[in-house]
Design brief:
five-stranded mixed β-sheet, transmembrane, mainly alpha, membrane, transmembrane helix, two-stranded antiparallel ribbon, about 750 residues, 4-amino-4-deoxy-L-arabinose transferase-like glycosyltransferase, about 60% helix
Length: about 750
């Protein structure tokens, strides 16, 4: 109940009560309830209600988006939600199915574990939701603009009407992309009546993140059964932690869910689905499944294949490691091999149908990732264009990986207990996913460092494995009070990191970033020595107190477990400090030279077009730059198509297939490349700068434009435009014309 009130409070920050109620009603009865029925019918076991509802929610999401895409070509998008009706009717009318759906759980969650799980799930949701509520509401302040989120809203608008999906901000450009989240969002909008802005920006991300976090607990429970603290710890590590940063004045890559689930809603869905696939995959490999489990696994795999491009390759690698390891035990993992074949076929189908054989610039470039993240800019010496300082890349890689390894220190246990878990195909499967996630990040490169999503997709599984590794050590204590040592170690690790950062900060020579004028480096090692040393001190103190209290366990095992848990606790420090220091966001003054996003009056003009035009009407605009700066025009201008839910002749051209191909061939920044069809842009812009009857007739007859959205803050708009077109809506910074 406390978690529910937190969610409602956060949702109410920028969304209306009607939208919140409508979304909750649809998620409860149109997604979670029928999905839970399918989950219970497919699964032979009843573990606990948290798992049932979380897995059922994502099963419902998967079925809804697949049904939506099946009926969209028939023009039945508004009725895709009706898939739930036959499921509910059959579950009620068939006695055997009704008994299976209403059967009691086998291992109910204890009250303490339930509170820990709720608290752990609240951390990432609060971290994202509270911060979003401290910035202006979407599309109300021109200084607060997220082009990437407007991009996702524009694609969701296309998903409401277009088959196949288009880039609506650039008429005629087909969108080859992992767009299943946009189909799901469009289906939710049709079914619930909630506006796309609320679904994309304010409340749509919350149920997905909550279900994904709860599934991390379920996955951890599979590999650390019966633990009350391992699942909540895994949620916390994946949700807000996972990285230890020893440098007070430098940010190492933070790979927790908090850092990308809002800004990458496709990852929010993909992260939940890979956790569900990992959960079912563990059961399939262990032989704890029914025929329905195999069917459900394939169905969710199809949904995941277009939700995030990284999901299916990681799952295939997990099964591949199972096949490889089982060979050494003279066993043939036939089930894993069959699933590799099925998943391979699904992924190849997605490459053709969803991604249109486009790689989006993905290329094999080992280790280049560390020239784009971490402390590389602070330690690299000047080199030529297109070259890298390889020594600086190694430093960046070592420090980044050290921070990630300490934050998920339970993984260290797995390297020393291979004889134990090599015999468990479920554990091997999870380790394979984790290795593939890290390997994909290290071996590839993509514009915008999107190769990071290989690792990010694996983060829930990595966190579950890390918590399970810590549980293995604590389990050896065989002490009923071991949870006290766990709590002391986690809190001690956070305190030790705070102390280490304070010490380093008090000695600037040790913490100053890093390259001296004479080319030598300083301050790289000492912060880590302080951090690791104080974490080890925590382990020693916890071990001594534990033995003084005459508790069970060998001192070496206690110390090892305490150090591992302290490292995982250390990764939670900075996010919790950040949450504690959230303040109202102060935005810089807006200037004419640097337009960012729409004002509230421009938003109203776009909504007027949405409410007074037909879905097939085409708009032209003079607005192409999301931001103007010294380097030129940032072409990620998407909010007109997002808010009008209509196609625009030429708005922006970022994040298109053509731009991705140009970036792959030229290596230039994707956000500043000029539009490749100069004639089309010239015809478009001339209608606003120097309109004539012939100019506007060309737009109407050649391109099919019906409406003009003029933004005087972008370029000068001729006063003669009203002579040749009908002014239908006027605001200080937005004019809407209808062409005759």
């Amino acid at each position: 109940m406390a978690l529910a009130w937190l969610l409602i409070w956060l949702a109410a920050g920028h969304a209306s009560g009607d939208s919140i109620v409508a979304l909750l009603r649809f998620w409860g009865f149109g997604i979670t309830l029928p999905g839970t029925i399918l989950w219970r019918l497919a699964s032979p076991f009843r573990h606990n209600l948290i798992e049932d509802f979380a897995a059922g929610s994502l099963v419902g999401v998967s079925v809804l988006l697949l049904v939506y895409m099946a009926v969209a070509p028939l023009g039945l998008q508004q009725w895709a939600w009706l898939w739930a009706a036959p499921v509910l009717m059959v579950a009620v009318s068939v006695p055997s199915w009704r008994r299976r759906c209403l059967s009691r759980v086998e291992r109910p969650v204890s009250p303490l574990a339930a509170w820990l799980i709720a608290g752990a799930c609240a951390l990432p949701i609060y971290a994202v939701g509270r911060y979003r509520n401290l910035v202006p509401a979407p599309y109300t302040d021109a200084r607060s603009n997220s082009p990437d989120m407007a991009f996702h809203q524009a694609l969701s608008a296309s998903a409401k009407y277009d088959v196949p999906l288009q880039a609506p901000y650039l008429q005629g450009e087909k969108m080859d992309y992992h767009y299943f989240w946009h189909q799901f969002t469009a289906a939710t909008s049709w079914a619930s009546g909630v506006d796309l802005t609320d679904l994309v920006y304010t409340i749509g991300w919350i149920p997905l993140l909550l279900a994904g976090c709860a599934l991390i607990f379920a996955l951890t429970d599979r590999i650390a059964p019966g633990s009350r603290w391992a699942g909540p710890l895994a949620i916390a590590v994946a949700g807000i932690g996972g990285t230890v940063n020893a440098y007070p004045n430098v940010n190492l890559p933070a790979e927790s869910l908090t850092n990308y689930v809002w800004g990458s809603p496709t990852q929010n869905l993909g992260g939940g689905l890979i956790t569900l696939l990992a959960l079912i995959g563990v059961d399939l490999l262990r032989g704890r499944s029914a025929p329905g489990s195999w069917v459900l696994f394939v169905l969710i795999s199809v949904a995941a294949s277009g939700s995030k491009a990284t999901v299916i390759p990681l799952i295939i690698c997990g099964f591949g490691l199972v096949v490889f390891i089982r060979i050494f035990y003279r066993k043939f993992a036939a089930g894993a091999l069959v699933l590799i074949g099925v998943l391979g076929a699904i992924f190849l189908g997605a490459i053709v149908v969803v991604f249109g054989n486009h790689s989006s610039g993905l290329a094999v470039r080992p280790w280049v990732t560390f020239a784009k993240i971490g402390i590389y800019p602070l330690v690299a010496k000047p080199v030529g264009w297109g070259e890298y300082d390889h020594g600086a890349m190694w430093i960046s890689g070592i420090t980044s990986c050290l921070g990630l390894l300490l934050g998920a220190a339970g993984l260290l246990v797995l390297t020393g207990t291979t004889a134990r878990w090599f015999r468990d195909p479920g554990m091997i499967f999870g380790v394979g996913i984790a290795i593939a996630g890290l390997g994909g990040m290290l071996l590839t490169d993509q514009p915008g460092t999107s190769q990071m999503y290989f690792h990010r997709t694996a983060v829930p599984v990595i966190a579950a494995l890390a918590a399970a590794g810590a549980w293995m050590l604590v389990f050896w204590f065989a002490d009923k009070r071991s949870g006290i040592a766990v709590l002391a170690s986690v809190l001690g690790g956070a305190g030790a990191t705070a102390a280490a950062r304070a010490i380093v900060k008090a000695h600037p020579s040790d913490g100053r970033p890093f390259l001296r004028p004479d080319g030598t480096l300083t301050g790289l090692v000492t912060p880590w020595l302080w951090t690791v040393g104080l974490l080890a001190a925590v382990a020693v103190i916890v071990t001594a107190l534990w033995k003084l209290a005459r508790r069970r366990g060998r001192p070496t095992r206690i110390a090892m477990a305490s150090f591992v848990l302290a490292g995982m606790g250390a990764g939670l420090l900075l996010p919790i400090q950040a949450m504690a220091n959230y303040r109202e966001v102060t935005l810089p003054p807006l200037t004419d030279k640097y337009p960012l996003g729409p004002s509230i009056t421009q938003t109203a003009a776009a909504h007027w077009i949405r409410d007074h035009t037909a879905p097939g009407d085409l708009i032209a605009t003079n607005a192409h730059c999301a931001m103007k700066n010294a380097s030129g025009c940032d072409v990620r201008h998407f909010w007109i198509s997002a808010l009008t839910e209509r196609h625009v002749l030429v708005e922006g051209w970022g994040y298109t297939n053509t731009i991705n191909d140009l970036v792959a061939s030229t290596g230039r920044s994707p956000n500043g490349l000029p539009f490749w069809d100069e004639q089309k842009q010239e015809d478009n812009d001339r209608a606003f700068a120097s309109p004539t009857r012939d100019n506007l007739r060309l737009l109407r007859t050649k391109y099919g434009v019906r409406w003009l959205y003029a933004d005087p803050s972008q370029t000068a708009v001729s006063q003669n435009l009203s002579t040749f077109a009908t002014l239908r809506y006027q605001a200080p910074d937005a004019l809407v014309f209808e062409l005759p």
